[in-house]
């Protein structure tokens, strides 16, 4: 069922191909949609283009920022425009008070500015319903990278997934059904039990280093430094490491290079490998949350 947001003013500032899908879905739901920080000539039909973000915020009931939000220099993520868009305190002051401001994950700059300016930030990637669905294009993208970088098939390869959260679980299951001999490192006993139930090989996290020599490819999903100097010394040269954890990631890349281990960061895979799916996931959740807001009024 298509949710009706008829008449609701919404501004989308910056973003990538995912934002275009969000704009399209918002317009289809009947919302009055304004956009800035995106090229005018590729905006979906019915979306109002603004060259300056301040001008499109007047009477909106929500603002949608890009998934990567704002960098530590205060620039909004706008890879499709030539001019970076500054997210300043002055811009924040133009937001109607109390409205929801959606982003993926707020970095330190945006979190601080939001606190100082009283913005109501909603971090979509912290919502399970987004993170679990988002793990599908993430896992597919990670496997795609491994297929491109390994000289062997995934089927029959020895894969090791570190972490069994939303991303790790989806990736481990995908590798398993593709025929990889998949080990998964987790801390919680119930996760180790679930890994066993999935017919994958559970590895208690504390014993991680004993198994690192038995993998052709290691996927890290743990968002803290786990493959650091000493631990990396247990990884044989020639092993591929794909680090999915967000910055600063979980791998000491310099050390890996120095011991002949190929380690690559893999940030933002959904937006790269499946922007349409990733945009639809976000649009569905945003539209649902906006509908709940209006229903509550
Ligand atoms: P999650 O559901 O919170 O899972 C994180 C996993 O890491 C859990 O299994 C957790 O175990 C484990 N963990 C955390 N701290 C640990 C530690 N000190 N030692 C051992 N294990 C630890 O997170 P997620 O949604 O899967 O996301 C994981 C990472 O991937 C995040 O950094 C996220 O931003 C990133 N991500 C990247 C992409 C991409 O395209 N590259 C896409 C989506 C997400 P416990 O349950 O025991 O705490």
CATH class of the largest domain: Alpha Beta
Give the count of structural domains: 2
Please report the number of helical segments: 11
Spatial order of strands in the largest sheet: 3-2-1-4-7-8
Termini separation: 21 Å
Short description:
With 297 residues, the protein is α/β, with parallel strands linked by helices. It has eleven helices and 14 strands. The chain has helices at 17-28, 89-93, 108-117, 128-149, 166-177, 189-197, 208-211, 229-232, 253-258, 269-273, 275-295, and strands at 9-13, 32-36, 48-49, 62-64, 75-76, 85-86, 100-103, 120-123, 158-162, 181-186, 201-204, 217-220, 240-243, 262-265.
How would you explain this protein's 3D organization?
With 297 residues, the chain is an alpha/beta fold. The protein has two domains: 9-126 and 274-295, Rossmann fold (3-Layer(aba) Sandwich), CATH 3.40.50.720; 131-266, Rossmann fold. The protein is built from eleven helices and 14 strands. The chain has helices at 17-28, 89-93, 108-117, 128-149, 166-177, 189-197, 208-211, 229-232, 253-258, 269-273, 275-295, and strands at residues 9-13, 32-36, 48-49, 62-64, 75-76, 85-86, 100-103, 120-123, 158-162, 181-186, 201-204, 217-220, 240-243, 262-265. The strands form three sheets. It has a six-stranded parallel beta sheet, with helices on one face. Strand 5 and strand 6 (85-86) form a beta hairpin. Helix 1 crosses helix 11 (275-295), helix 4 (128-149) crosses helix 5 and helix 4 (128-149) runs antiparallel to helix 11. It is elongated. The chain starts with 8 loop residues before the first strand and ends with a helix. The mean pLDDT is 95. Residues 131, 134, 138, 163-168, 186-188, 205, 221-224, 244-246, 266-270 line the site of NADP nicotinamide-adenine-dinucleotide phosphate. NADP nicotinamide-adenine-dinucleotide phosphate binds at residues 131, 134, 138, 163-168, 186-188, 205, 221-224, 244-246, 266-270.
């Amino acid at each position: 069922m298509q949710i009706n947001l008829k008449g609701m003013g919404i501004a989308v500032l910056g973003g990538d191909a995912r934002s275009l899908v969000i704009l399209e879905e918002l317009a289809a739901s009947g919302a009055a949609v304004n956009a800035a920080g995106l090229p005018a000539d590729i905006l979906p039909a019915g979306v109002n283009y603004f060259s300056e973000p301040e001008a499109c915020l007047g009477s909106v009931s929500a603002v949608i920022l890009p998934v990567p939000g704002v960098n530590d220099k205060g620039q909004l993520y706008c890879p499709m425009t030539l001019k970076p868009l500054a997210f300043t305190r002055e811009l924040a002051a133009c937001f109607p008070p109390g409205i929801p401001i959606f982003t993926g994950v707020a970095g330190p700059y945006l979190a601080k500015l939001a606190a100082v300016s009283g913005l109501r930030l909603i971090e979509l990637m912290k919502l399970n319903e987004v993170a679990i669905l988002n793990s599908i294009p993430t896992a597919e993208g990670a496997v795609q990278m491994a297929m491109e970088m390994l000289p062997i098939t995934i089927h029959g390869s020895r894969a090791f997934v570190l972490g069994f959260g939303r991303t790790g679980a989806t990736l481990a299951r995908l590798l398993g059904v593709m025929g990889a001999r998949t080990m998964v490192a987790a801390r919680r006993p119930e996760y180790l039990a679930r890994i066993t139930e999935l017919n994958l090989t559970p590895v208690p996290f504390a014993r991680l280093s004993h198994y690192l020599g038995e993998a052709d490819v290691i996927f890290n999903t743990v968002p803290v430094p786990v493959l650091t100097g000493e631990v990396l010394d247990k990884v044989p040269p020639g092993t591929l490491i794909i680090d999915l954890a967000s910055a600063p990631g979980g791998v000491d890349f310099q050390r890996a290079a120095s011991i002949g281990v190929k380690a690559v960061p893999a940030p933002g895979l959904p937006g790269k490998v499946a922007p349409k799916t990733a945009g639809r996931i976000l649009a569905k959740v945003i539209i649902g949350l906006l509908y709940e807001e209006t229903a509550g009024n």
